[in-house]
From TrEMBL, chain A:
GO terms for biological process: phenylalanyl-tRNA aminoacylation. The gene is farsb. Gene3D superfamilies: 3.30.56.10, Bira Bifunctional Protein, Domain 2, Phenylalanyl-trna Synthetase, Chain B, domain 3. Belongs to the phenylalanyl-tRNA synthetase beta subunit family. Type 2 subfamily. GO terms for cellular component: phenylalanine-tRNA ligase complex. It comes from Sinocyclocheilus anshuiensis. Its cofactor is Mg(2+). Heterotetramer; dimer of two heterodimers formed by FARSA and FARSB. This is Phenylalanine--tRNA ligase beta subunit. Its main location: cytoplasm. InterPro entries: aa-tRNA-synth_II/BPL/LPL (IPR045864), B3/B4_tRNA-bd (IPR005146), DNA-bd_dom_put_sf (IPR009061), Phe-tRNA-ligase_IIc_bsu (IPR045060), Phe-tRNA-synth_IIc_bsu_arc_euk (IPR004531), Phe-tRNA_synthase-like_B3/B4 (IPR020825), PheRS_beta_core (IPR041616), PhetRS_B1 (IPR040659).
From TrEMBL, chain B:
Pfam families: PheRS_DBD1, PheRS_DBD2, PheRS_DBD3, tRNA-synt_2d. The gene is farsa. It comes from Sinocyclocheilus anshuiensis. This is Phenylalanine--tRNA ligase alpha subunit. One of its GO terms (cellular component) is cytosol. Belongs to the class-II aminoacyl-tRNA synthetase family. Phe-tRNA synthetase alpha subunit type 2 subfamily. It is found in: Cytoplasm.
Length: 582, 510
C-alpha cells in the first residue's frame, strides 16, 4: 500500500478546515485511507540517522497517509484534497478537458518509430500550458512522478515518466531506439556529455538510478527521445537530458510516458495531467493542453438503483444513490427511465472497471458502518475434511500417549532433507523453489523428521526424555497431479534419551494402530519387518506394513544423523503415512 | 509435594519441644521465641528449630513471624563492659607519682586509652621530665561512662541511651545493630503439652487392621506444588486452530481440501482476476511469491474456463473493462507455493459452478500459505491463513458484515467496524477493525470482501450469485491470546518446549 506524505498545515489550508488528529483519522477511515503516522522531517531523520543529523531539519508536521494501491488519483496532496473535498461536498468534481494550443498553433506531436518495438514499444505524451509553480507545487509534482514510478509503473519497468520545459525544445518529437554507442547527451544535472554505454557504467553506483539500469542494460537498442533539432529529451526509463530540465520558472511542460504496457502508460499520463492542470492559467477551467495519444477519456456506465441497493443491502432512492456516487467523483444522474442511473467515470478513476466498483463507491459514500448488518439465510450442513478430522483425533491421542506436539516449517534446505538424513537429494522427490532468498527455503520438506530433529536441538537443555510428534503435510513430486506435485499427510514422532528407546517408538506404533483399529497381523493387519534405510542405524530399522502396503519406517537413527543434527543422545523415530487410513 | 514436605531435616528433641509447650501453657496471650530462649537458657536458633518442628505437627501451636532490631555488644564492647574502657584502664594504671610514657604505651589498652584519656583531660604528659616523658593523673577520680553505657546495652536497656550515644559507640565498633527474626508463639487449636509420634501416610495394613483410627498423621504442606503428570501437550497454535475449526463448524461451514501447497499461477492469480504477472500486480508487495523450479509448470487446466479467464483479463467481458494486457498461458502455467488459500476457494467455486444446479455453500479452511518476503518479529515465510466463504443468491455487503459479526462474536470480539480497502479480487473490500480495550484503540483483525464478477462469472456461476469471503491469520490472534511478541517463539523449531508444556487450553471467547 503506497504511503503519501503531506504537510499537515498545507493539507488543512487546502481543505479549508482544521482538524484534530483524531478527526482527520476518522475522516480517513470513512473514506478508505489510513492516517499511518504523524511525524516530521526532523523526527524521521533523528530516528533513521540519529539526533545529530536531524539538527536543524524541519519540524513541520507531516501526515503519512496510506492510500489504496489502485487509487493513483490520491497519490499527491492535490488529488487527496480534491477527493476529500468532493466527498465532503465542499467542491464539485472538476471536469477535465483537453484543448488545443491557445495561439491556434498545431498540437505537438510525438512520432514513434518501429525500432522501439523490441525494447519499449509504447509512448504517450501531453503538454501542460501556462502552469504556475510554487516551491510546494513543484515538490509535489516531482513527488507524484516518483510515487507513480514506484506503484503503477512497477519501478519504471512498465512505464517511465519524463517531464520537460517545452520552451527549451521544439517539436515534433521522435521516440526511437538506437544502439547505446550511437547515443550521446548531457544527462540531467551532469556537467558533460556521455554515451549511453558510459552512462550505464556511470550510474552503476548511483543509489537511486542503479535500480533501473537492468531494464535496458542488455538490450541491443536503447529507447531515446529527440526533439526536432536532435536534442535528447530522455533516455527512458533511466534518465532525462539536462537541456530540457524543468524548474520553478517553467511555464509549459512536455510530459512523455514510455511503456511496455500501453494501458498503464495512458493511466499514468492521465494522472499527472489531471492532478496538475489545477495550476494552469484560468483556474478551475482545468485546461490541459493536448498532444497525441492523450485521451482524458470519460466513460458513461448505466446501472440501476436496485442493483446498488441489492448488492449493498440498503434501500435508497435512485436520486440519493446518484448523489452518493457524485461524492466519490463519479458524477451521476438519474436518467429518467425507471431507476436507471448514468454514471460518468472520469479519467482519474482508472480503478473503476466494472459496475461492482461503482457499487463499492456508493457503499463508501453511504458509510460502511451505516449499513445494517444482517445474517444471510443460507442454510448449509457443515462437514469436516476427513483427512483433517482424522488428524485432529490422532493428535489428541498422541498427546495422551505422552508425546508433545511440535509445529515446524514446511520449507527447509536441501541439506535438511538429504545430507543430514544421509539421503541423496535426487531420491527425495522434493519440490524445488527457484527463487529462495536464503538456503532455509530451497525445498519443500519431503518428511517431517528434519523439523523434529531441529526442535530437539533447540531444546537440548530440557529434561530427558524428549518425546515429540507432528502430524502435518509434506510435498512430493507426482506426475499424476495437474501441478506435478501433491501433499502427503504424515505422522512423525521421535524419542530422545540416554538410551535409544526403540521399544517406546514401537509401542507408539502399536498404540496408533490400535487407535486406527488395525490389528497386528500379516494380511489384513499391520506388521513391521527389518529394512535398510540410510537414515537409520544398520540393523535397527524396520519398515511398517499395513494391509500388505508399505506405509513408513521406524527405528534408531544413524549416529551420523544425530551428530549432523547437533544432537548428542541416541534417538529413535517413526515416520508414516496416515492417508491409507481415511 | 504436599505429602513429601512433611519430613524435616533435624527434628528437635522431644524434651525441648515439651519444655517449650509447658512454658507456653503457663502464659496467656503467647510469648516471644527470644524470651523462650532466655527462659530455657538455650540459643535462640535452637528455639526457632523447635518452633518449626511444632509447626509441622499441625495446629499444636500457632505462630506469627516477627522481626525486630536491637543493639548488641561487639567482642570489644563486651570486653569493655567487663574490664572498663581503654581510657579508664590507662587512668587506673597510673600511680600518683606518674608513669613513664613508653611503659604505659606497652599496656594492651595503651595507645587508644592514652589518647582518649588525654582528650578527656584525665591525664597529662610531662615531656621534659627527667628520665623521659612521664604521664600523670590530673583528676582524682573518673566516671567510666563508656563502660556504663555498654553495660546498659548488655542488660537489654539500650533504650536508656540516646541515639547519638549509640551511633558514637557504633562508630567505635563497640556496638552493632542486628535484626532478629523471632516468632510470637500462641497455643494452637489442638494444643497439648505432649508430642505423639506421627505417621507419614496411610498404608494398606492400617486400613486392614483399623489402626489408622488411633494414629496421628503428619499434616500435608498444601503450599507446595504437586508432581507434574506424565503427559504430552498440544501445540498452542494448533489448539487455536482447533477452536477456529470448531467455530466454523458451529456456523455450518464445510472444510475445504487445502492439502495442496503447490499451486499454479493460474489458480493462485489468474482465476481470481489477479494480473498474472505479479510484476504487474498493483499490490505486488502482498504477493511476493516463491516460484517452483521443479516441477516448474502445471500441465492440466480446464480448457474452456482458461479461455474465459484469458478473455476477461485481456479484453474484458462480463460487464468489465478487463486489464487490457497480453495474457500469456506461459505465465499461468508457472508453479508456485500458494500465496493464499483463496487459490483453493477458487478451485472449490469453479467446482461448484460445474454442478448441474447451483446450491448455496459455506466453506472454510485453515492452512499454510507462503510469502517470499522480508522476515521480522511478526513475519515468517509461511503462516496459516483462516478463510471463510459463503456463496448464495443475493448476498449483500450487509450480509457479509452480519456473518463477520457472528464469527467475531464467537472469538469474544463484539465491537466491530469496517474500513473501505483495496483488494484486487474483491469489490467491495473491507478491513475489519475491532476495538481493543487494552490498547484503547481500533486494531485491524481481518480482511473481507465480495468476490469480483470477473472472477465468478467466467467460472460459470449464475449471474445473481454473490460470494462473500473473509480472511485473517491464525498466528496473530494466537500471539495476542498467549502474549507472545516474536512469532519465532510460537512457530517453528526454535520454540521453547516449556512454553508448549505450560500453555493453557484455548477458549477464544473467554
Amino acid at each position: 500500500m503506497p504511503t503519501v506524505s503531506v504537510k499537515r498545515d498545507l493539507l488543512f489550508e487546502a481543505l479549508g478546515q482544521k482538524y484534530t488528529d483524531e478527526e482527520f483519522d476518522e475522516l480517513c477511515f470513512e473514506f478508505g485511507l489510513e492516517l499511518d503516522e504523524i511525524t516530521s522531517e526532523k523526527e524521521i531523520l533523528s530516528r533513521e540517522q540519529g539526533d545529530e543529523k536531524a539538527e536543524g531539519a524541519s519540524d513541520v508536521v507531516l501526515y503519512k497517509i496510506d492510500v489504496p494501491a489502485n487509487r493513483y488519483d490520491l497519490l499527491c496532496l492535490e488529488g487527496l484534497v480534491r477527493g476529500l473535498q468532493v466527498f465532503k461536498e465542499k467542491l464539485e468534481a472538476p471536469r477535465y478537458k483537453r484543448v488545443s494550443p491557445a495561439d491556434g498553433g498545431e498540437p505537438q506531436r510525438l512520432v514513434i518509430t518501429e525500432e522501439t518495438a523490441s525494447v519499449r514499444p509504447h509512448a504517450v505524451a501531453a503538454v501542460l500550458r501556462n502552469i504556475t509553480f510554487t516551491q510546494e507545487r513543484y515538490e509535489s509534482f516531482i513527488e507524484l512522478q516518483e510515487k507513480l514510478h514506484q506503484n503503477i509503473c512497477r519501478k519504471r519497468t512498465l512505464v517511465a515518466i519524463g517531464t520537460h520545459d517545452l520552451d527549451t525544445i521544439s517539436g515534433p518529437f521522435t521516440y526511437t531506439a538506437k544502439p547505446p554507442g550511437d547515443i550521446r547527451f548531457k544527462p540531467l544535472n551532469q556537467s558533460k556529455e556521455y554515451t549511453a554505454a558510459e552512462l550505464i557504467s556511470h550510474y552503476k553506483t548511483d543509489s537511486h538510478l542503479r535500480h533501473y539500469l537492468h531494464i535496458i542494460e542488455n538490450e541491443p537498442l536503447y529507447p531515446i527521445i529527440y526533439d526536432n533539432n536532435g536534442i535528447v529529451l530522455s533516455m527512458p526509463p533511466v534518465i532525462n537530458g539536462d537541456h530540457s530540465k524543468i524548474s520553478l520558472k517553467t511555464k509549459n511542460i512536455f510530459i512523455e510516458c514510455t511503456a511496455t504496457d500501453q494501458t498503464k502508460a495512458k493511466i499514468t499520463l492521465d494522472m499527472i495531467v489531471t492532478m496538475f492542470s489545477e495550476y494552469c492559467d484560468e483556474p478551475f477551467t482545468w485546461v490541459s493542453s493536448y498532444t497525441l495519444c492523450i485521451e482524458l477519456a470519460y466513460r458513461t456506465e448505466t446501472l440501476s438503483g436496485d442493483f446498488i441497493n441489492k448488492r449493498v443491502g440498503i434501500n435508497e432512492s435512485a436520486e440519493s444513490i446518484a448523489q452518493l456516487l457524485t461524492r466519490m467523483c463519479l458524477r451521476s444522474e438519474v436518467s429518467g427511465e425507471g431507476d436507471l442511473i448514468q454514471v460518468e467515470i472520469p479519467p482519474t478513476r482508472a480503478d473503476v472497471i466494472h459496475a461492482c466498483d461503482i457499487m463499492e463507491d456508493a457503499a463508501i459514500a453511504y458509510g460502511f458502518n451505516n449499513i445494517i448488518r444482517s445474517t444471510p439465510r443460507t442454510y448449509t450442513v457443515a462437514n469436516q475434511l476427513p483427512l483433517n478430522k482424522l488428524t485432529e483425533l490422532l493428535r489428541q491421542d498422541l498427546t495422551a500417549a505422552g508425546f508433545t506436539e511440535a509445529l515446524t516449517f514446511a520449507l527447509c534446505s536441501q541439506e535438511d532433507i538429504a545430507d543430514k538424513l544421509r539421503k541423496n537429494i535426487v531420491e527425495t522427490r522434493a519440490v524445488h523453489i527457484s527463487n529462495p532468498k536464503t538456503a532455509e527455503f530451497q525445498v519443500v520438506r519431503t518428511c517431517l523428521l528434519p523439523g523434529l530433529l531441529k526442535t530437539l536441538a533447540a531444546n537440548r537443555k530440557m529434561p530427558l526424555p524428549l518425546k515429540l510428534f507432528e502430524i502435518s503435510d509434506v510435498v512430493l513430486k507426482d506426475e499424476t497431479k495437474d501441478v506435478g506435485a501433491r501433499n502427503n499427510r504424515r505422522l512423525c514422532a521421535v524419542y530422545y534419551n540416554k538410551s535409544p528407546g526403540f521399544e517406546v517408538i514401537h509401542g507408539l506404533l502399536d498404540r496408533v494402530m490400535q487407535l486406527l483399529d488395525v490389528k497386528p497381523g500379516r494380511n489384513q493387519g499391520y506388521h513391521i519387518q527389518a529394512a535398510e534405510d540410510s537414515t537409520f542405524f544398520p540393523g535397527r530399522c524396520a519398515e511398517i506394513f499395513s494391509c500388505g502396503k508399505s506405509i513408513g519406517h521406524l527405528g534408531v537413527l544413524h549416529p551420523d544423523v544425530i551428530s549432523r543434527s547437533e544432537l548428542t543422545m541416541p534417538c529413535s523415530a517413526i515416520d508414516m503415512d496416515i492417508e491409507p487410513f481415511l | 509435594g504436599a505429602a513429601g514436605a512433611t519430613g524435616f531435616g533435624s527434628m528437635a528433641d522431644t524434651g525441648l519441644l515439651e519444655s517449650l509447650l509447658r512454658l507456653l501453657e503457663k502464659v496467656d496471650g503467647g510469648t516471644d521465641s527470644q524470651d523462650v530462649a532466655a527462659d530455657l537458657g538455650v540459643d535462640h536458633q535452637v528455639i526457632v528449630g523447635a518452633v518449626k518442628s511444632l509447626q509441622a505437627l499441625g495446629e499444636v501451636i500457632s505462630t506469627e513471624q516477627k522481626s525486630s532490631k536491637h543493639w548488641e555488644l561487639t567482642g570489644e564492647g563486651r570486653e569493655i563492659a567487663e574490664q572498663g574502657s581503654h581510657e579508664a584502664r590507662v587512668f587506673n594504671a597510673i600511680p600518683d607519682e606518674g608513669l613513664p610514657q613508653n611503659g604505659l604505651m606497652k599496656m594492651p589498652s595503651g595507645k587508644v586509652g592514652f589518647s582518649k584519656a588525654m582528650s578527656n583531660k584525665w591525664i597529662r604528659l610531662d615531656k621534659a621530665h627527667e628520665g623521659g616523658p612521664r604521664v600523670f593523673k590530673t583528676v582524682e577520680t573518673i566516671e567510666d561512662t563508656v563502660r556504663d553505657k555498654l553495660q546498659l546495652v548488655q542488660k537489654g536497656q539500650s533504650a536508656k541511651l540516646e541515639d547519638k550515644e549509640k551511633t558514637e559507640l557504633k562508630k567505635r565498633k563497640l556496638l552493632s545493630e542486628v535484626t532478629v527474626k523471632s516468632y510470637w508463639i500462641t497455643k494452637g487449636s489442638s494444643f497439648s503439652t505432649t508430642i505423639t509420634k506421627q505417621e507419614t501416610e496411610l498404608t494398606p495394613e492400617m486400613i486392614a487392621s483399623g489402626s489408622w483410627k488411633e494414629k496421628k498423621f503428619k499434616p500435608y504442606n498444601f503450599e507446595a506444588m504437586g508432581v507434574a503428570p506424565d503427559c504430552g501437550h498440544l501445540h498452542p497454535l494448533m489448539k487455536v486452530r482447533t477452536q477456529f475449526r470448531q467455530i466454523f463448524l458451529e456456523m455450518g461451514f464445510t472444510e475445504m481440501p487445502t492439502n495442496n501447497f503447490i499451486e499454479s499461477s493460474f489458480w493462485n492469480f489468474d482465476s481470481l482476476f489477479l494480473q498474472i504477472n505479479p510484476q504487474q500486480h498493483p499490490a505486488r508487495d502482498q504477493h511476493d511469491t516463491f516460484f517452483i523450479s521443479d516441477p516448474a509448470l502445471a500441465h492440466e487446466f480446464p480448457q474452456d474456463y482458461l479461455e474465459r479467464v484469458k478473455q476477461v483479463h485481456s479484453e474484458g467481458g462480463y460487464g468489465s473493462q478487463g486489464y487490457k494486457y497480453d495474457w500469456k498461458i506461459e505465465e499461468a502455467q508457472k508453479n508456485l507455493l500458494r500465496t493464499h488459500t483463496t487459490a483453493v476457494s477458487a478451485r472449490m467455486l469453479y467446482k461448484l459452478a460445474q454442478q448441474e444446479k447451483f446450491t448455496p455453500v459455506k466453506y472454510f479452511s485453515i492452512d499454510r500459505v507462503f510469502r517470499n518476503e522480508t522476515l521480522d518479529a511478526t513475519h515468517l515465510a509461511e503462516f496459516h491463513q483462516i478463510e471463510g466463504v459463503v456463496a448464495d443468491y443475493g448476498l449483500t455487503l450487509g450480509n457479509l458484515m452480519g456473518v463477520l459479526h457472528q464469527f467475531f462474536t464467537k472469538l469474544g470480539i463484539t465491537k466491530l467496524r469496517f474500513k473501505p480497502a483495496y483488494n484486487p479480487y474483491t469489490e467491495p473490500s473491507m478491513e475489519v477493525f475491532s476495538y481493543h480495550e487494552g490498547l484503547k484503540k481500533w486494531v485491524e483483525v481481518g480482511n473481507s470482501g465480495v468476490f469480483r464478477p470477473e472472477m465468478l462469472l467466467p467460472m460459470g456461476l449464475p449471474e445473481g450469485v454473490s460470494v462473500i469471503a473473509w480472511g485473517l491469520s491464525l498466528e496473530r490472534p494466537t500471539m495476542i491470546k498467549y502474549g507472545i511478541n516474536n512469532i519465532r517463539e510460537l512457530v517453528g523449531h526454535k520454540v521453547n518446549l516449556q512454553m508448549v508444556y505450560d500453555s493453557p487450553i484455548c477458549r477464544l471467547d473467554s
